[in-house]
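HOLO CASE FILE
Compound: flavin-adenine dinucleotide
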Amino acid sequence: MNLNEKYYESIIDHHGSKLLLENFVNEKLPNYKSKRNFDFGTYEENCVSGLSPAIGRRILNEKDIVKRISNQFSYGQVEKFIDEICWRTYWKGWLEHRPQVWYDYLDDLKQLYPFKSDNVDYKNAISGNTGLECFDTWVNQLLKFGYLHNHTRMWFASLWIFHLKLPWQLGAEFFYQNLIDADSASNTLSWRWVAGLQTKGKKYIATMDNINRFTNNRFSFSNKLMLSNDDVAGYKYYEPTYVVTKSNPSKSKNKGYLIIEEDLSLVNVDKNCPIIIQSQSYNKFGQSEQVESFSNKTLKNAIEYCKNEISHNVSTFTWENAELIEKWVKTYSLDEIEIIAPTVGKYEKIIPKLSDRFNLNISYYYHDWDTSFWKYSDKGFFKMKKQIKKIISQFWETPLFKNF
Ligand SMILES: Cc1cc2nc3c(=O)[nH]c(=O)nc-3n(C[C@H](O)[C@H](O)[C@H](O)COP(=O)(O)OP(=O)(O)OC[C@H]3O[C@@H](n4cnc5c(N)ncnc54)[C@H](O)[C@@H]3O)c2cc1C
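Model generated. Tokens follow.
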């Protein structure tokens, strides 16, 4: 899906993302249910929001989105969109229940390292030289724009696994490194879902007819596309282990706030307290320059916002220079550092390590949106889906939607 400069400028901060949401609500949301699966090639023509880079970093949060759309529509009119918003929450929760899935994926990537330098099919795939027009177009789109439409991500993953017969882990890595909305949970678990490893035996096999129908016949196929239906090896059952955790920050007056790139919501931060915020993206998994630069811009905006709207005491640090956090604690004589609880991915291990290394008292704030949904994320999505209305209604005293 082609994107323009204006889109990237909007999506990096709260104000711009809200305007993007506003446009989406007025122009596209009424047709979301019937048109969301079409990828016509451009953001303007497609009927999706493009909000994932902001939602993923919590520049825009789920509650604000649901509240905004409730002003204008009945629940039934926007149920599909709310379900999709909740899919993300569900994947996050599913991975919180089973962090081992993420660590096994990282281990698999290490094992596959030699494959990447030896395998010609892999090299052709990531450079868009497979000869399959649609796939090569999507590779170029991903590299250029850092974004693919959801249906296209599904076809892409399916072709990668069942046509090019490449390991799903390398496809997930290629996405993670190049998507500006890269997310450890949504990405890894969607790839596993396409491969048939999420729900045993249920894989997603793309077809030429389906691609033709939902892309308006934009691509030509030299031969009829036939994907294999072979099971992908490596199915393993993971026992859910997550115990719902409550926020544990105290009311201490000597508290400071640590802000990292994965959650820029700032919802927990008290006015005029010391803040330390990450200034450069932590590029642990080889993300592209485009993704890194996008993340850096979101951080720059968040720093400006903190300085202008929240506190006079705003410091910055990078993960290469984490000693600055210890120095900051000493400068302000802090007895507690509050952080929004990091989720399984880049940060959930670094934060406890930081606490041990500098002997810091770190407390975790959890979004009630997450904890309310995560307790239902241990099994399939449809178990959680049944609870969506009930969970949403608890956040507001009066019902949000008419006919709720
Ligand atoms: C193989 C594969 C890899 C994916 N990797 C990622 C990823 O790294 N990061 C990511 O955020 N999403 C990922 N997705 C999910 C989905 O494709 C994107 O969230 C969606 O395309 C984002 O575009 P949008 O904001 O225009 O979506 P919209 O259709 O406008 O949906 C609104 C929001 O709902 C959520 N959402 C929508 N569809 C899904 C979905 N299928 N799963 C989870 N959440 C969803 C997103 O937060 C999205 O911003 C992946 C899907 C597949 C099939």
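CASE NOTES: The longest strand covers residues 255-259. The radius of gyration is 22 Å.
CLOSED: yes
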